[in-house]
Amino acid sequence: MLVAVDIGNTNIVLGFLDEGRIAGTYRITTKANHTSDEYGLFLTEFLRMSGFRPADVDDVIICSVVPKVMHSFRSSIVKFLDIDPMVVGPGIKTGMNVRIDDPKSLGADILADCAGAYYSYDGPALVADFGTATTFTHVSGDGVIDAGIITTGIRAGAAALWGDTAQLPEVEITRPDTILGTNTKTCMQAGLYYTFLGGVERTITQFRKELGGEDFRVIATGGLGRVFANDTDLIDVYDPDLIFKGMAHIYARNVK
């Protein structure tokens, strides 16, 4: 079994891939002060909950955008599983051709997402990852990562709204029943949701315009991806496991 670990700014997400099948996924809040023993305890307990033992793990691959967490998490893998994990980064074969100004600046999570989209869904794609930040990344039909945007995630935008105003309260980010808000809470929820959704749709439309009408598929992933994918026809697929599919592909390319 392969354990795939996505270390993000908000959460660490673990995926257990058993013979190509995702047998379980679990989330841990990303905290720099967790020790290797704490991470190891989380990992072994999640394995047990999925019906596995540490001895069942053949290898581990890590994709991280939080360098300060890497030392303790990697140490937990070595200590509890006796495995030196593969880390997505320079020197790793991905099967993707990165043609941006500074290829090394491309986030490991975006790279894995793009590999998952390209090799799972065949052909050109616009990968929309709704995480702490929201990213849109274009992959050509030849597997070239050539353009993208990075913008505020809806949770970060919402936090700025109530954090920088004296009388606006913190509200749950959810799809409202109507845009016709009648109190502060529903006005904020409708405003956050529909302005963000409008930005998503405008972004996709602009990519299509500037790429000359290329017939790419829009693949959404990330925690809030499902909410928006269900409310617009411009998103073709929502795949919460996209990054794990990409990491599995990357792992296979690097292990004989």
UniProtKB/TrEMBL annotation:
Residues engaged in binding K(+): 129
Major place of residence: cytoplasm
EC assignment: 2.7.1.33
Active site, UniProt feature: 109
Catalysed reactions listed for this entry: (R)-pantothenate + ATP = (R)-4'-phosphopantothenate + ADP + H(+)
GO molecular function: ATP binding; metal ion binding; pantothenate kinase activity
Cofactor(s) this protein requires: K(+); NH4(+)
CC cofactor note: A monovalent cation. Ammonium or potassium.
Keywords associated with the record: ATP-binding, Coenzyme A biosynthesis, Cytoplasm, Kinase, Metal-binding, Nucleotide-binding, Potassium, Transferase
Pathway: Cofactor biosynthesis; coenzyme A biosynthesis; CoA from (R)-pantothenate: step 1/5
Gene Ontology CC entries for this record: cytoplasm
Gene3D superfamilies: 3.30.420.40
BP GO terms, sorted: coenzyme A biosynthetic process
Residues binding substrate, per UniProt: 107-110, 184
Subcellular locations according to the entry: Cytoplasm
CDD domains tied to this protein: ASKHA_NBD_PanK-III
InterPro entries: ATPase_NBD, Type_III_PanK
Transmembrane segments: none
Residues that coordinate or bind ATP: 6-13, 132
Quaternary structure and partners: Homodimer.
Described function: Catalyzes the phosphorylation of pantothenate (Pan), the first step in CoA biosynthesis.
UniProt-listed PANTHER family: TYPE III PANTOTHENATE KINASE
Similarity field: Belongs to the type III pantothenate kinase family.
Protein name as catalogued: Type III pantothenate kinase
Protein source organism: Bifidobacterium callitrichidarum
Name of the encoding gene: coaX
